[in-house]
Write a structure and sequence with these properties.
Blueprint: H1 6-14, H2 22-81, H3 84-89, H4 96-115, E1 118-119, E2 124-130, E3 133-142, E4 145-156, E5 166-170, E6 180-184, E7 188-193, H5 197-218, E8 227-232, E9 239-241, E10 248-252, E11 258-260, H6 267-285, H7 296-312, H8 321-330, H9 334-341, H10 348-356, H11 365-369, H12 374-388, H13 394-398, H14 406-416, H15 419-423, E12 428-436, E13 442-452, E14 455-467, E15 470-473
Parallel strand pairs: 7-8, 8-10
Antiparallel strand pairs: 1-3, 2-3, 3-4, 4-5, 4-11, 6-7, 9-10, 12-13, 13-14, 14-15
């Protein structure tokens, strides 16, 4: 047996592991298990408490929602059976005008039921609750057509003793229309809120198509800025360009009122939007010229707008008769020629000279009679009472008359000073005939009618003379 050195002995001893008492080890493991079990029990208890709280909150939310739907059901039932007292019991506001409005709404529903097939189904399409306020979309069926209406409610907490506590119909809260969203197409962008999602989705592809067709019809030299449309919950209803932004069209939501459920984009709203787009493109291609509203140029611009709207959308009304008669006589390029010549001082003579190369007095009577003058002369008749009520435009009113004719000048002065003249119904033109006398003076004779007590009767002949490049009234 060999000799082991001290350092070898120490090395062997260092490799001997320390051992723990088995009983102590068991006690430590048992304590660990007890702690884990206690933690699991605490977590389970907290989870159960949280679940109970959520369950209770859900029960409360469900009860609040049921109370809201019950209130809506009571209100619809009152409308259905004509129970004014129960209907008004659901209404509440500090505004007396709202209570009066709701009273009138009740009468309107009763009148509607008497003259139409109305089904007040009470079906709730959606109900959205935000703390104390709520918004409900309801279905109504009128003559077989489904409509949606939006009603607003507030949950009053006056106490059970107050019969006016709980959910009550309140004035419309047009700020409570849902979250804002944006849809973007190739040439247009639509900004809308949640309630108008269906309308926005129906509108966007049409906007792209209308914008493209409009520019193609006008042969835009440069692409116009991107089109933006904002669907807004506002009264009164309107479709108009925003004052500070000429490329932002603001359209009122159809749901601010009674809206077709089967047609998110109704033909009426579609026609309004198309016409506004057409007017915007005509102004853009025409150089953004400001035209006096009482000028021949403004009327011609409006005619071009009607023509372009018909090109952009086949469902829009046909082009105005005057534009159709121009195209029939001078070819399909007539609108663009007219647009290129449009200016603040442009009169009818300038427009026809641009198309024919001949001044109006040199055109034959047959050529003049081939044009549809009814709309222009009707516009002139409707313009007169508007200008009479605008003292700053008295000169424009007098300019509509043949002031070289003493009788016409005297009549114009009398009408300008007569408030009763502006209040009279505007005669309606039935037909126009162009004639020329022996002195080569050209006249337009318009046969008119008026309505009295629901009966249409002749209202005489209104006469204009061709003077200073346009038609001037002589009687």
């Amino acid at each position: 047996m060999g000799i082991r050195l001290d350092w070898q002995v120490e090395s062997e001893q260092s490799r001997i592991r320390a051992t723990e008492d088995p009983a102590a080890q068991r006690r430590r493991q048992r304590a660990r298990r007890q702690i884990m079990l206690l933690l699991a029990l605490v977590v389970a208890v907290l989870g159960l408490i949280g679940a109970l709280i959520l369950w209770r909150l859900q029960r409360v939310d469900d009860q609040i929602r049921r109370d809201l739907l019950d209130t809506v059901s009571v209100e619809v039932a009152a409308l259905r059976v004509g129970d004014f007292a129960n209907y008004m019991a659901v209404q509440r506001s500090a505004s007396d005008s709202f209570i009066l409005d709701q009273s009138q709404r009740f009468e309107d529903y009763q009148t509607l039921k008497a003259s139409h097939r109305v089904a007040l189904t009470g079906e709730v399409i959606s109900a959205t609750i935000d703390n104390q306020r709520a918004r409900v979309v309801l279905e109504e069926i009128i003559d077989g057509v489904p409509y949606h209406v939006v009603w607003f409610y507030w949950r009053y907490e006056d106490g059970a003793a107050n019969p006016q506590s709980g959910w009550r119909h309140v004035p419309d809260d047009l700020t409570f229309w849902g979250e804002e969203h944006t849809l973007t197409g190739a040439r247009a962008r639509v900004v809308y809120r949640t309630l108008d999602e269906t309308l926005a989705q129906a509108l966007l592809p049409r906007l792209d198509a209308w914008w493209e067709r409009g520019c193609a019809a006008l042969t835009c030299a440069a692409a116009p800025p991107p089109l933006r449309v904002e669907i807004v919950a506002e009264r009164p209803k309107t479709v108009e360009w925003a004052a500070p932004d000429p490329w932002l069209l603001r359209a009122s939501s159809p749901l601010v009122g009674r809206a077709r459920a089967d047609l998110p984009l109704t033909p009426e709203l579609q026609a309004e939007i198309v016409r506004q787009l057409a007017a915007r493109l005509v102004r853009y291609v025409g150089g953004e010229i400001a035209l006096p509203v009482y000028s021949d140029a403004a009327w011609l611009q409006d005619e071009l707008t009607g023509w372009l709207a018909a090109q952009m959308d086949e469902q829009s009304p046909a082009a105005p008769p005057f534009m159709r008669s121009l195209i029939a006589q001078y070819g399909p390029g007539a609108p663009l020629t007219l647009l290129a010549a449009l200016g603040p001082q442009m009169a009818l003579d300038d427009a026809l000279t641009a198309l024919t190369g001949v001044a109006m007095p040199l055109l034959t009577v047959d050529q003049l009679n081939s044009l549809a003058w009814e709309s222009f002369l009707q516009w002139r008749l409707e313009l007169e009472p508007q200008l009479v009520t605008q003292p700053q435009n008295s000169g424009a009113f007098l300019a509509l008359y043949d002031l070289q004719n003493v009788a016409a000048s005297s009549e114009a002065a009398l009408r300008l000073e007569s408030p009763a003249y502006a209040a009279q119904p505007v005669p309606q033109i039935v037909s126009v005939t162009i004639g020329r006398d022996a002195a080569s003076q050209t006249y337009a004779y318009a046969e008119t009618t008026r309505t009295e007590n629901g009966v249409t009767i002749p209202a005489g002949t209104v006469i204009w003379r061709l003077s200073s490049g346009t038609w001037k009234r002589v009687n």
